[in-house]
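Reopening: Sodium/calcium exchanger membrane region domain-containing protein still failing for me.
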Amino acid sequence: MNKKNLIGIGIGILIITIALLGMDSIIKFSDERLLKIFNSPVTGILVLITGILLMVLFSSKAVEHSAILASALGISPLMIGLVLVSLGTDLPEIVNSIVSSSLGHADIDIGDSMGSVLTQLTLVFGLLPFLGRSFRVNYCIFCQL
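Support: Ran it again with your exact input. Result attached.
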């Protein structure tokens, strides 16, 4: 088996470690007011669990219907992912950026954008080998466009 471009459990552990170290440093330097968003830990945990459950439910539906749409339109699933799915995941960030910038908090806007990219590059790619199996990175994926 060719091991070139293979991302497995070892790389996944390394990437998750980098993500957790980054999150730890963010929490250490956060403003105390930001850490007290909810009045009780129980409320925070319930909101978190509800959010995760809704995300799992609607994410699977979004992927399922995106694949159906790509097939029906005869478009590459890669294009659907690049345009529709990525737009859907970025809309909350766009709204957050507009609101925070209009309130004079451009630093929140910048932090949100940078945090999103770093989370996707570290935590998401780090978890992939654990959720499925090792996968190959196709460096010429944009050649298909």
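The mean pLDDT is 72. If you still see a failure, please send the error message rather than a screenshot.
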